[in-house]
């Protein structure tokens, strides 16, 4: 996988032939993470690789706690979620291209410099999770999306990961952005115009524009699943409905999986004839990308399948 190969640009491996049996620890740092599914998923993925490693939750924004944990000899990697994705990235030794361009870090990994000193590298695996969920669902997606538009719904950090993933790996003609606030889109356009020269971004501000444009081949939604109420939210929903009704159907990836993976947007897309990928699938692929960097092993398909099944069962149980 290119993610692992590129990680060695930042140093050599800290692992030995017996590292999977060593008592290494990994962590999630963030706020409101008590219900995170990451411990479940990483536990399954570690076991599938024969690793005896542990995954821990650290519900904090404390920078000193993060740095102490990072530097602990038994610490091999950290997952970072809101609101730490920007501030904690500033504490690391280096950032990958994805982290720099997107402007947020969600994963750290360890590499060694020429003196065997540990270096702490920050990256963004959200974009890898988006890419992998698409290509695993449809191996021809990179080829069929080439030269066509795609669309991102939202204006936050996840939307930036989606813009990066779509433009870097799918050879698109342009990316439409649909969002309740034009100011957030303006920030995204300004940021990526500088960070990814040549990128083509278009804000869809009204239904008439949505009607006039070719249908996107891929849509990535990054917004919460709640009924639209504010004028901007209602307009976004109507624009999405307009896109869904176009004759050419594509693939919707909805990154939202709370409270349930089958969001209102997923249901509307399916009803209109679109293919869909649930947010739980993206989450599993993000975790797999993290484990590739930590364990330096390629994904174990049995473990991936077990993780997808477990997260599906977990969400189904929550409905009861």
TrEMBL record:
Domain called Shikimate dehydrogenase substrate binding N-terminal: residue spans: 28-107
One Pfam family here: Shikimate_dh_N
Gene Ontology molecular function terms on file: shikimate 3-dehydrogenase (NADP+) activity
Gene Ontology terms: biological process: chorismate biosynthetic process; shikimate metabolic process
Domain of life of the native organism: Eukaryota
InterPro entries tied to this protein: Aminoacid_DH-like_N_sf, NAD(P)-bd_dom_sf, Shikimate_DH-bd_N, Shikimate_DH_fam
Record-given protein name: Quinate dehydrogenase
Taxonomy of the source species: Eukaryota, Fungi, Dikarya, Ascomycota, Pezizomycotina
């Amino acid at each position: 996988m290119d993610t692992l190969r590129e990680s060695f640009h930042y140093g050599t491996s800290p692992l030995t032939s017996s590292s999977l049996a060593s008592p290494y620890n990994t962590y999630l740092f963030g706020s409101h993470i008590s219900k995170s599914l990451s411990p479940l998923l990483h536990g399954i993925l570690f076991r599938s690789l024969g690793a005896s490693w542990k995954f821990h939750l650290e519900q904090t924004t404390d920078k000193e706690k993060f740095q102490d944990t990072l530097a602990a000899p038994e610490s091999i990697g950290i997952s970072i979620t809101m609101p730490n994705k920007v501030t904690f990235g500033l504490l690391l030794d280096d950032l990958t291209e994805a982290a720099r361009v997107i402007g947020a870090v969600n994963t750290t990994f360890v590499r060694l410099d020429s003196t065997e000193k540990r270096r702490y590298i920050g990256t963004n695996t959200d974009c890898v999770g988006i890419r992998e969920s698409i290509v695993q669902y449809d191996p021809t997606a990179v080829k069929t999306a080439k030269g066509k538009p795609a669309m991102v719904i939202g204006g936050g950090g996840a939307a930036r990961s989606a813009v990066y993933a779509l433009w870097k790996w799918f050879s698109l003609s342009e990316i439409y952005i649909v969002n309740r606030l034009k100011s957030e889109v303006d920030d995204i356009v300004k940021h990526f115009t500088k960070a990814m020269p040549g990128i083509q971004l278009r804000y869809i501000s009204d239904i008439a524009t949505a009607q006039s444009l070719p249908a996107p081949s891929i849509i990535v939604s990054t917004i919460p699943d709640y009924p639209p109420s504010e004028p901007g939210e209602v307009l976004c929903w109507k624009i999405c409905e307009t896109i869904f009704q176009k004759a050419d159907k594509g693939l919707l990836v909805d990154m939202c999986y709370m409270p349930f993976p089958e969001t209102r947007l997923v249901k509307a897309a399916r009803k209109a004839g679109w293919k869909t990928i649930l947010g739980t699938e993206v989450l599993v692929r993000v975790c797999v990308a993290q484990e590739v960097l930590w364990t330096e092993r390629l994904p174990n398909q049995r473990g991936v399948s077990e993780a997808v099944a477990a997260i599906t069962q977990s969400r189904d149980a929550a409905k009861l």
